[in-house]
Amino acid sequence: MIALFLCSVAFCAYTLFGYPLLLGLVARRRVRPVCKAPWRATVSIVLPVHNGERWMAAKLESIRALRYPAELVEILVASDGSTDGTATIVQRFASRSKLLYLALPRGGKAAALNAAMAKASGQILFFTDVRQQLDAGSLGNLVACFADPHVGVASGELVIRDGTGVEEASVGLYWKYEKWIRKQLSRVDSVLGATGCIYAMRRELAMPLPEGTLNDDMYLPLGAFFRGYRVILDDSALAFDYPTPLASEFRRKVRTLAGVYQIVGAYPALLGPRNRMWIHFFSHKLARLLMPWAIIAAAIASLALPAPWKAWAIGAQSCAYLLALSDPWLPAGFPLKRLTSPVRTFAVLMAASLCALAIFFVPARVLWKETRVSAGHGNHQDQE
Questions:
Q1: Alpha helices by DSSP H, 39-100
Q2: Domain at 200, CATH number
Q3: Domain count of the chain?
Q4: What's the pLDDT tens digit per position in 110-144?
Q5: Dist CA 332 CA 165 (whole Å)
Q6: Hey, how many other C-beta atoms are within 10 angstroms of the C-beta on 19?
Q7: CA distance 266 to 128
Q8: What is the band of 164 on the pLDDT scale with cuts at 50, 70, 90?
Q9: Are residue 139 and residue 227 in the same domain, yes or no?
Q10: Whether residue 64 is found in the same domain as residue 115
Q11: What is the crossing angle of helices 166-188 and 19-29, to 10°?
Q12: Range of the domain at 284
């Protein structure tokens, strides 16, 4: 039991701290720069949406404001069975842009993307979602990455606006941690997925998505990756989003982590020698799915530890759980909130990892839930 406890703790420590440290050291020593250059490629902007009335006008204005030659851009809005005023809003913009509205029956995001990709004519496909606003230079910065012939997919960076409370700040802190890892992976070779609301790829590398795909932003980039191309992150291409409360982040993580199980089934080569980034896939993706089980194993093993280690181990775990459980009950300005909120966020993310196993028992569409954002900005059905 001592060995089980130590191995479980060591595994968690490696996943959270050891791997990022090693990755940072590798990224400092082995950098593969991207040879960017201006390129006047034709671009098809692919925008899937389900009931995006609240966001659509602002999104299309954001697209119109992009500093990229308008004559080289077409916009394909793929409506996944929208029943609100999405179509009316899109039609107002149709006369001012090269815009095609695809009114599709409800079939899920993968079906909407497939319909749009089948109609796209641009050399580059630019994928974005309805809620996030785009920086004016984002498209041009991504397209410039494809002047490098080794780049197959270029992902932008999502910037989360400041939240109104400690809970949202804790979720934002996790996202900063995640972005740092992705930047280092891009420096070394490739990220193993793109930022779903802002990424681009060569059209000839795009392939139809299987029905019910949860993580299109992994499935499509990995198709290019296994054809020998790089999947890079360009932090000069920005999209902006509102912070989400922890409950919404939980649902999003359940979906995206369940999507990792799907991805392994679709690309079993991820686990073998054909994956030149296999250690990074294990450490960054699979280890996140395994870590809750390591925590459970450590909790069970701690019951059999000799004194005084048993008391220390059980006491430390109990304190962590009490901090997480007390967080919802503490007032916003309470000083201890700065500790309880990150601990609770970590616990919720671990719970989401366990719940991702639902993909083996329920249809994938069940895992698509409404996304709620803060600061009174409302809800929308998650198409990210």
A1: 53-64, 86-94
A2: 3.90.550.10
A3: 2
A4: 999 999 999 999 999 999 999 999 999 999 999 99
A5: 7
A6: 18
A7: 23
A8: low
A9: yes
A10: yes
A11: 40
A12: 1-30+274-367
